[in-house]
Amino acid sequence: MSAETATRTGRLAFRGLCLQHGYNSKRLAGEIGMPEPMLSDRIRRRTPWRWSEVVAVCKTLEISLDEFARYYPG
Known about the structure:
It is built from five helices and no strands. It is an all-alpha fold. α2 (25-32) packs across α3. The two termini are 18 Å apart.
């Protein structure tokens, strides 16, 4: 699997996780206090996640940091 394919697969899987918890991008962005375009850039790996954002997403989705790292490793 190419790096591009892995990135896309991870991004789609993360979006699926959000939907499973009842969040689309707009709702999640509002919940964590981030503009939706900024969240989209994070999800698409255009801009790196900040620690405070990761913590906010994990808290909102009620997932562990380890689970988040499955979608966005190192």
